[in-house]
Write a structure and sequence with these properties.
Blueprint: H1 5-28, H2 33-54, H3 57-89, H4 97-118, H5 121-153, E1 162-166, E2 170-171, E3 174-175, H6 177-192, E4 198-202, H7 213-223, E5 232-235, H8 241-256, E6 265-270, H9 274-283, E7 288-293, H10 300-313, H11 317-342
Parallel strand pairs: 1-4, 1-6, 4-5, 6-7
Antiparallel strand pairs: 2-3
Helix pairs in contact: 1-2, 2-5, 3-4, 4-5, 5-11
Length: about 350
């Protein structure tokens, strides 16, 4: 039995609201984390309405079962990926991230089951807080994963005055494979716009590097990519993504003017890093688009987890709000409700 038009309209009303909010936010500034949240809410509301309208109960059951099994499937995937990336890249904090996340999920599930059985009220309350924070963590993780893919695949037919290449480590005095991918992508973009604009090699010298990343990129651009010296600028002081952009902005501003529309730049980095670099550019008032070079599939999960943690550190507000609401509920349960109950 089909639903009447008013019922269908009511089901799709949340999706319409989220779509409107997302479009306004996106058109105003696509380089914002909140766009990822609105876009994910839009997708969830559309899928939910679609499942109800389909009147196929098995689809709803399948969705519930998929959500229930998701943590276990994620744990298996993360463990397998951690083994793969450590085997290929060696043991480091970055390569251990998938395994560490898998361990955290397993530990939480074990504590959750044990806490429910133990009947300890304080532990149950703490587990409730962890559950709420964890739900936001995984929701925002999925939201950023989807939106970052959407953002970096958007078609951009622009001519850039500057193409900033973000540093990424060296092999001796030569760019590492990851960095070569970024440089090659930048050159490809530069050639596609008929060699218009200037390439900005951005990266300082790390403690274990024999030259600056900017110098290594400049040498590679001239000798391997046959880019004229006059089409290359060097920024060789930065050690972080934010410094890459801030110091490059000063160089470009000195050359073309510091107004918000004095020039347009592209930020070329690895695909997993595009959104964070673009968000930082927005914070700095830099008129720039992110462009991503491809990353090996086995390395992608570890790299994106690191990116998500970095982005989350700049957006701790929701975690704080969740903790405050949880604390208010605990106070109400332990203080206010017993107080009112004792008064009657």
């Amino acid at each position: 039995m089909g639903l009447n038009p008013w019922a269908v309209a009511a089901l799709f009303a949340p999706a319409a609201v989220f779509a409107a909010v997302f479009l306004v936010s996106f058109l105003n500034e696509p380089r914002q984390f909140r766009n990822a949240i609105w876009f994910m809410l839009l997708q969830i509301s559309l899928i939910g309405a679609g499942l109800i309208i389909s009147e196929q109960e098995w689809l709803i059951v399948l969705a519930i079962v998929a959500v229930g099994f998701a943590p276990f499937l994620v744990v298996l995937f993360l463990i397998a990926n951690s083994v793969s990336v450590i085997r290929r890249e060696g043991l480091s904090l970055a390569t251990m991230l998938p395994g560490a996340l898998a361990f955290a999920i397993v530990l939480f599930l074990a504590l959750f089951i044990w806490g429910l059985g133990a009947g300890l009220r304080w532990l149950t309350n703490l587990i409730g807080l962890a559950l709420l924070e964890g739900l936001w963590f995984f929701f925002s993780f999925a939201a950023l994963l989807v939106y970052s893919w959407v953002y970096r695949t958007l078609p951009r037919k622009r001519r850039y005055d500057y193409i900033i290449i973000h540093g990424a480590g060296l092999d001796g005095d030569r760019p590492s494979p990851l960095l070569r991918g970024r440089v090659d992508k930048a050159v490809e973009l530069w050639q596609r716009q008929k060699r218009h604009g200037v390439l900005v090699a951005s990266g300082g010298q790390g403690g274990d590097e024999v030259v600056s990343e900017a110098a290594a990129m400049r040498k590679y651009l001239i000798e391997e990519c046959h880019v004229p010296e006059g089409s290359i600028l060097m920024e060789d002081r930065s050690t972080t993504t934010m410094e890459n952009l801030a110091f490059s902005k000063k160089i470009m501003g000195a050359r073309s003017g510091s107004g918000p529309r004095a020039y347009r730049a592209a930020l070329v980095t690895s695909d997993y890093h595009v959104f964070r670099a673009s968000e930082y550019a927005h914070k700095l008032g830099l008129n720039a688009d992110g462009v991503g070079s491809s990353t090996k599939g086995y390395y992608w999960p570890a790299a994106f987890i690191r990116e998500f943690i970095a982005v989350s550190r700049s957006h701790l507000g929701p975690y704080i709000v969740i903790a405050i609401l949880w604390l208010l509920l605990i106070l109400a349960d332990h203080v206010l409700i017993p107080w009112f109950a004792g008064g009657f």
